[in-house]
């Protein structure tokens, strides 16, 4: 799985969208409420530290079983300290990837697709963590 870096997040142009606070049933339909509770800015919701956040586009399916799919857009925060179990964007020998970070018993990058192997980080590898994945943006409309 590789990533394409799309750019840094900017909060200078807020777009406020209507937010309906009533939950939408994923089972049986429920009566709709026709009033807007408030507005919601997706920048505020998804980006905690704009100076350290950037977007990447996913290429590949090594994380599909974790719900990260080819062509998804990820919001990545460089200001967060990556912890065991976080999904991270990392560079290994100058190639970017998205994997689950495993810190015990050694540093490993774990795919979420059984056709891919775990990457065990060796002392000879050039390894850098670029940030922690905080959100996924997916366009479900197929054109």
Give me a quick take on this structure:
The protein is mainly beta and 143 residues long. It has one helix and ten strands.
Task: Describe the fold and architecture.
- With 143 residues, this protein is mainly beta.
- The protein has a domain at 2-9 and 50-137: Ribbon (Umud Fragment, subunit A).
- It has one helix and ten strands.
- The chain has one helix at 42-46; strands spanning 2-8, 16-19, 38-41, 53-59, 73-77, 87-92, 95-102, 108-110, 119-120, 127-137.
- The strands form two sheets. Strands 1-4-5-10-6-7-8-9 form an eight-stranded antiparallel beta sheet, with no helix packed on it.
- Strand 6 (87-92) and strand 7 form a beta hairpin.
- The longest helix has 5 residues, at 42-46.
- It is globular and about 55 Å long.
- 16% of the residues are buried.
- The mean pLDDT is 81.
CATH topology of one domain: Umud Fragment, subunit A
CATH uppermost class of one domain: Mainly Beta
Number of strands: 10
The amount of beta strand, in percent, is 35-45%
Q: Mean of the pLDDT scores?
A: 81
What CATH architecture label of one domain applies?
A: Ribbon
Kindly state the percentage of residues in helix: under 10%
For the termini, the CA-CA separation is 23 Å
Relevant CATH superfamily of one domain: Umud Fragment, subunit A
The global form is: globular
Question: What does the radius of gyration come to?
Answer: 18 Å
Q: How can the largest sheet be summarized?
A: 8 strands, antiparallel
Class by SSE composition: mainly beta
Number of DSSP helical runs: 1
Order of helices and strands: EEEHEEEEEEE
Largest sheet, spatial ordering of strands? 1-4-5-10-6-7-8-9
Low-confidence stretches are none
């Amino acid at each position: 799985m590789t990533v394409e870096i799309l750019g840094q997040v900017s909060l200078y142009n807020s777009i406020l969208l209507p937010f309906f606070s009533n939950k939408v049933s994923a089972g049986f339909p429920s009566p709709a409420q026709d009033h807007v509770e408030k507005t919601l800015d997706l920048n505020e919701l998804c980006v905690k530290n704009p100076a350290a956040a950037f977007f990447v586009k996913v290429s590949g399916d090594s994380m599909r079983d974790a719900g990260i799919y080819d062509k998804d857009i990820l919001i990545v925060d460089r200001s967060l300290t990556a912890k065991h179990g976080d999904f991270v964007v990392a560079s290994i020998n100058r190639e970017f990837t998205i994997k689950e970070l495993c810190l015990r018993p050694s540093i490993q990058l774990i795919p979420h697709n059984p056709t891919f192997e775990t990457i065990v980080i060796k002392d000879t590898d050039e390894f850098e963590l670029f940030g922690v994945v905080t959100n996924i943006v997916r366009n479900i409309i197929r054109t």
